[in-house]
Protein backbone atom coordinates (compact mmCIF):
# COMPACT_ATOMS: atom_id res chain seq x y z
CA UNK A 1 0.00 0.00 0.00
CA UNK A 2 1.18 3.50 -0.81
CA UNK A 3 1.34 6.29 1.72
CA UNK A 4 1.76 9.00 -0.98
CA UNK A 5 -0.74 11.86 -0.92
CA UNK A 6 -2.56 13.71 1.88
CA UNK A 7 -2.32 12.65 5.49
CA UNK A 8 -3.87 9.24 6.05
CA UNK A 9 -7.07 9.28 8.14
CA UNK A 10 -6.19 5.90 9.72
CA UNK A 11 -3.89 2.90 9.29
CA UNK A 12 -6.75 0.71 7.98
CA UNK A 13 -10.44 0.98 7.20
CA UNK A 14 -11.34 -1.46 10.00
CA UNK A 15 -9.80 -2.81 13.18
CA UNK A 16 -10.75 -6.42 14.05
CA UNK A 17 -12.52 -6.88 17.39
CA UNK A 18 -12.95 -10.67 17.20
CA UNK A 19 -16.10 -12.75 16.63
CA UNK A 20 -16.64 -11.18 13.19
CA UNK A 21 -16.90 -7.71 14.71
CA UNK A 22 -14.96 -4.69 13.42
CA UNK A 23 -14.31 -1.16 14.61
CA UNK A 24 -14.81 1.35 11.80
CA UNK A 25 -12.02 3.92 11.54
CA UNK A 26 -12.33 7.53 10.25
CA UNK A 27 -11.01 6.30 6.88
CA UNK A 28 -14.41 4.71 6.15
CA UNK A 29 -16.24 8.07 6.19
CA UNK A 30 -17.86 8.98 2.89
CA UNK A 31 -18.05 12.37 1.17
CA UNK A 32 -21.37 13.35 2.74
CA UNK A 33 -20.47 13.26 6.44
CA UNK A 34 -17.69 12.14 8.81
CA UNK A 35 -20.37 10.13 10.65
CA UNK A 36 -21.44 7.82 7.79
CA UNK A 37 -19.43 5.35 5.77
CA UNK A 38 -18.66 5.16 2.08
CA UNK A 39 -20.13 1.94 0.69
CA UNK A 40 -16.78 0.86 -0.79
CA UNK A 41 -15.20 -0.40 2.44
CA UNK A 42 -18.61 -1.68 3.58
CA UNK A 43 -19.10 -3.88 0.51
CA UNK A 44 -15.45 -4.98 0.67
CA UNK A 45 -15.95 -6.13 4.27
CA UNK A 46 -18.83 -8.32 3.10
CA UNK A 47 -16.75 -9.55 0.15
CA UNK A 48 -13.98 -10.53 2.56
CA UNK A 49 -16.52 -12.50 4.60
CA UNK A 50 -17.85 -14.26 1.49
CA UNK A 51 -14.33 -15.36 0.52
CA UNK A 52 -13.67 -16.78 3.97
CA UNK A 53 -17.00 -18.58 4.36
CA UNK A 54 -16.61 -22.33 3.78
CA UNK A 55 -13.91 -21.82 1.12
CA UNK A 56 -13.95 -24.35 -1.71
CA UNK A 57 -10.76 -24.97 -3.74
CA UNK A 58 -11.20 -24.38 -7.47
CA UNK A 59 -14.02 -21.86 -7.05
CA UNK A 60 -14.18 -18.06 -7.04
CA UNK A 61 -16.56 -15.25 -6.11
CA UNK A 62 -17.89 -14.07 -9.48
CA UNK A 63 -20.58 -11.60 -8.43
CA UNK A 64 -21.41 -9.58 -5.30
CA UNK A 65 -24.55 -7.48 -4.84
CA UNK A 66 -24.94 -5.31 -1.75
CA UNK A 67 -28.34 -3.82 -0.84
CA UNK A 68 -27.83 -0.70 1.27
CA UNK A 69 -30.72 -0.45 3.73
CA UNK A 70 -29.69 2.87 5.23
CA UNK A 71 -26.73 5.08 6.17
CA UNK A 72 -23.89 3.01 7.64
CA UNK A 73 -22.54 4.70 10.78
CA UNK A 74 -18.82 4.98 11.51
CA UNK A 75 -19.25 2.57 14.41
CA UNK A 76 -18.60 -1.09 15.33
CA UNK A 77 -20.06 -3.53 12.80
CA UNK A 78 -20.98 -7.22 12.94
CA UNK A 79 -20.71 -9.44 9.85
CA UNK A 80 -22.54 -12.73 9.30
CA UNK A 81 -22.59 -15.04 6.25
CA UNK A 82 -24.55 -18.19 5.42
CA UNK A 83 -24.90 -20.53 2.44
CA UNK A 84 -28.31 -20.25 0.80
CA UNK A 85 -27.79 -22.62 -2.11
CA UNK A 86 -24.92 -25.09 -1.60
CA UNK A 87 -23.28 -26.71 -4.58
CA UNK A 88 -19.96 -28.05 -5.84
CA UNK A 89 -19.89 -25.84 -8.97
CA UNK A 90 -22.37 -23.09 -8.07
CA UNK A 91 -23.22 -21.78 -4.58
CA UNK A 92 -25.22 -18.76 -3.45
CA UNK A 93 -24.05 -16.99 -0.30
CA UNK A 94 -25.91 -14.41 1.75
CA UNK A 95 -24.38 -11.88 4.12
CA UNK A 96 -25.57 -9.25 6.55
CA UNK A 97 -23.89 -6.28 8.16
CA UNK A 98 -25.32 -4.99 11.44
CA UNK A 99 -24.68 -1.92 13.55
CA UNK A 100 -25.90 -2.84 17.01
CA UNK A 101 -29.25 -4.59 16.59
CA UNK A 102 -29.98 -2.98 13.22
CA UNK A 103 -29.27 -4.63 9.84
CA UNK A 104 -27.83 -1.95 7.56
CA UNK A 105 -26.54 -3.88 4.53
CA UNK A 106 -27.61 -7.21 3.07
CA UNK A 107 -25.63 -8.86 0.30
CA UNK A 108 -25.50 -11.95 -1.89
CA UNK A 109 -22.62 -13.54 -3.76
CA UNK A 110 -22.35 -16.24 -6.39
CA UNK A 111 -19.42 -18.59 -5.88
CA UNK A 112 -18.78 -20.59 -9.04
CA UNK A 113 -16.24 -23.10 -10.28
CA UNK A 114 -13.31 -21.57 -12.12
CA UNK A 115 -13.43 -22.15 -15.89
CA UNK A 116 -11.03 -24.73 -17.39
CA UNK A 117 -7.58 -23.39 -18.21
CA UNK A 118 -8.00 -24.33 -21.89
CA UNK A 119 -10.86 -21.82 -22.32
CA UNK A 120 -9.92 -19.13 -24.86
CA UNK A 121 -9.74 -15.63 -23.42
CA UNK A 122 -11.91 -12.90 -24.97
CA UNK A 123 -11.81 -9.24 -23.92
CA UNK A 124 -13.84 -6.52 -25.66
CA UNK A 125 -12.74 -3.74 -23.28
CA UNK A 126 -10.71 -0.86 -24.76
CA UNK A 127 -7.01 -1.08 -23.99
CA UNK A 128 -6.22 0.66 -20.69
CA UNK A 129 -4.23 3.91 -20.83
CA UNK A 130 -0.81 3.97 -19.16
CA UNK A 131 -0.70 4.54 -15.42
CA UNK A 132 0.19 8.24 -14.91
CA UNK A 133 3.53 8.76 -13.21
CA UNK A 134 2.18 10.90 -10.37
CA UNK A 135 -0.92 10.88 -8.21
CA UNK A 136 -3.11 13.93 -7.94
CA UNK A 137 -6.38 14.75 -6.20
CA UNK A 138 -9.49 14.25 -8.27
CA UNK A 139 -11.06 17.37 -6.79
CA UNK A 140 -14.25 17.45 -4.79
CA UNK A 141 -17.77 18.73 -5.24
CA UNK A 142 -19.16 21.51 -3.07
CA UNK A 143 -19.47 20.47 0.57
CA UNK A 144 -17.79 17.07 0.15
CA UNK A 145 -16.02 15.61 3.16
CA UNK A 146 -12.54 14.84 1.84
CA UNK A 147 -10.76 13.57 4.98
CA UNK A 148 -12.14 10.02 5.07
CA UNK A 149 -12.42 7.51 2.25
CA UNK A 150 -11.48 9.98 -0.50
CA UNK A 151 -8.09 10.66 1.08
CA UNK A 152 -7.58 6.98 1.97
CA UNK A 153 -7.55 6.21 -1.75
CA UNK A 154 -4.80 7.13 -4.22
CA UNK A 155 -6.09 8.52 -7.52
CA UNK A 156 -4.39 8.88 -10.90
CA UNK A 157 -7.06 10.26 -13.26
CA UNK A 158 -6.76 9.88 -17.02
CA UNK A 159 -10.01 11.64 -17.92
CA UNK A 160 -12.29 14.03 -15.99
CA UNK A 161 -12.57 14.38 -12.20
CA UNK A 162 -15.04 14.25 -9.32
CA UNK A 163 -15.57 18.01 -9.71
CA UNK A 164 -16.15 18.00 -13.50
CA UNK A 165 -19.51 16.67 -14.78
CA UNK A 166 -19.42 13.82 -17.26
CA UNK A 167 -17.87 10.39 -17.78
CA UNK A 168 -14.43 10.01 -16.25
CA UNK A 169 -11.66 7.48 -15.81
CA UNK A 170 -8.98 7.01 -13.17
CA UNK A 171 -6.49 4.49 -11.95
CA UNK A 172 -6.92 4.03 -8.20
CA UNK A 173 -5.82 1.94 -5.25
CA UNK A 174 -6.30 1.98 -1.51
CA UNK A 175 -3.47 3.52 0.48
CA UNK A 176 -4.38 1.39 3.51
CA UNK A 177 -5.61 -2.20 3.96
CA UNK A 178 -9.28 -3.01 4.51
CA UNK A 179 -8.57 -4.77 7.83
CA UNK A 180 -5.55 -3.94 9.94
CA UNK A 181 -2.79 -6.54 9.68
CA UNK A 182 -4.13 -8.17 6.51
CA UNK A 183 -3.25 -8.03 2.83
CA UNK A 184 -6.23 -7.25 0.61
CA UNK A 185 -7.40 -9.90 -1.86
CA UNK A 186 -8.18 -8.94 -5.49
CA UNK A 187 -11.92 -9.05 -4.70
CA UNK A 188 -11.48 -6.81 -1.67
CA UNK A 189 -9.42 -4.30 -3.67
CA UNK A 190 -12.11 -4.17 -6.35
CA UNK A 191 -15.05 -3.76 -3.96
CA UNK A 192 -13.24 -1.06 -1.99
CA UNK A 193 -13.12 1.05 -5.16
CA UNK A 194 -16.25 0.04 -7.09
CA UNK A 195 -18.78 2.18 -5.21
CA UNK A 196 -16.92 5.32 -6.38
CA UNK A 197 -18.41 4.99 -9.88
CA UNK A 198 -21.32 7.34 -9.15
CA UNK A 199 -18.97 10.05 -7.91
CA UNK A 200 -16.29 9.69 -10.55
CA UNK A 201 -18.62 9.53 -13.56
CA UNK A 202 -21.44 11.78 -12.42
CA UNK A 203 -23.14 14.26 -14.73
CA UNK A 204 -25.41 15.37 -11.88
CA UNK A 205 -24.67 18.55 -9.92
CA UNK A 206 -24.28 17.39 -6.31
CA UNK A 207 -24.86 20.98 -5.16
CA UNK A 208 -28.37 20.91 -6.66
CA UNK A 209 -29.52 17.31 -6.34
CA UNK A 210 -29.68 14.58 -3.72
CA UNK A 211 -28.10 11.38 -5.09
CA UNK A 212 -28.19 8.14 -3.09
CA UNK A 213 -27.22 4.70 -4.35
CA UNK A 214 -29.46 1.93 -3.08
CA UNK A 215 -27.18 -0.92 -4.11
CA UNK A 216 -23.90 -1.99 -5.66
CA UNK A 217 -23.38 -4.94 -7.99
CA UNK A 218 -19.88 -6.02 -9.02
CA UNK A 219 -19.43 -8.88 -11.51
CA UNK A 220 -15.92 -10.14 -12.28
CA UNK A 221 -15.13 -12.56 -15.09
CA UNK A 222 -11.60 -12.82 -13.69
CA UNK A 223 -9.66 -11.56 -10.70
CA UNK A 224 -7.63 -8.38 -11.21
CA UNK A 225 -3.83 -8.47 -11.02
CA UNK A 226 -1.83 -5.87 -9.14
CA UNK A 227 -2.84 -3.06 -6.81
CA UNK A 228 -3.97 -0.53 -9.42
CA UNK A 229 -7.47 -0.70 -10.92
CA UNK A 230 -8.71 1.44 -13.78
CA UNK A 231 -12.32 2.59 -13.45
CA UNK A 232 -14.14 4.08 -16.44
CA UNK A 233 -17.40 5.45 -15.03
CA UNK A 234 -20.53 7.19 -16.27
CA UNK A 235 -24.11 7.87 -15.21
CA UNK A 236 -27.31 7.64 -17.24
CA UNK A 237 -30.38 9.61 -16.07
CA UNK A 238 -33.89 10.28 -17.30
CA UNK A 239 -36.75 12.54 -16.16
CA UNK A 240 -39.45 10.57 -14.30
CA UNK A 241 -37.04 7.63 -14.21
CA UNK A 242 -33.98 7.17 -12.05
CA UNK A 243 -30.23 7.08 -12.53
CA UNK A 244 -27.84 4.23 -13.22
CA UNK A 245 -24.11 4.43 -12.63
CA UNK A 246 -21.96 1.94 -14.50
CA UNK A 247 -18.24 1.33 -14.56
CA UNK A 248 -15.87 -0.79 -16.60
CA UNK A 249 -13.07 -2.20 -14.46
CA UNK A 250 -9.63 -2.99 -15.88
CA UNK A 251 -6.07 -3.71 -14.84
CA UNK A 252 -2.90 -3.40 -16.92
CA UNK A 253 -3.86 -6.55 -18.88
CA UNK A 254 -7.35 -5.39 -19.85
CA UNK A 255 -10.91 -5.59 -18.60
CA UNK A 256 -11.94 -7.89 -15.77
CA UNK A 257 -15.41 -6.78 -14.68
CA UNK A 258 -18.28 -4.33 -14.34
CA UNK A 259 -19.95 -2.35 -11.55
CA UNK A 260 -23.54 -1.06 -11.42
CA UNK A 261 -25.33 1.23 -8.96
CA UNK A 262 -29.04 2.08 -8.87
CA UNK A 263 -29.38 5.74 -7.87
CA UNK A 264 -32.17 7.74 -6.25
CA UNK A 265 -32.18 11.31 -7.59
CA UNK A 266 -34.30 13.92 -5.79
CA UNK A 267 -34.32 17.59 -4.92
CA UNK A 268 -32.18 18.67 -1.99
CA UNK A 269 -34.05 19.17 1.31
CA UNK A 270 -34.98 22.79 1.96
CA UNK A 271 -32.55 24.62 4.19
Automatic annotation (TrEMBL):
<feature type="domain" description="Acyl-CoA thioesterase-like N-terminal HotDog">
    <location>
        <begin position="29"/>
        <end position="111"/>
    </location>
</feature>
<dbReference type="InterPro" id="IPR042171">
    <property type="entry name" value="Acyl-CoA_hotdog"/>
</dbReference>
<protein>
    <submittedName>
        <fullName>Thioesterase family protein</fullName>
    </submittedName>
</protein>
<feature type="domain" description="Acyl-CoA thioesterase-like C-terminal">
    <location>
        <begin position="139"/>
        <end position="265"/>
    </location>
</feature>
<dbReference type="InterPro" id="IPR049450">
    <property type="entry name" value="ACOT8-like_C"/>
</dbReference>
<dbReference type="Pfam" id="PF20789">
    <property type="entry name" value="4HBT_3C"/>
</dbReference>
<dbReference type="InterPro" id="IPR049449">
    <property type="entry name" value="TesB_ACOT8-like_N"/>
</dbReference>
<dbReference type="Pfam" id="PF13622">
    <property type="entry name" value="4HBT_3"/>
</dbReference>
<dbReference type="InterPro" id="IPR029069">
    <property type="entry name" value="HotDog_dom_sf"/>
</dbReference>
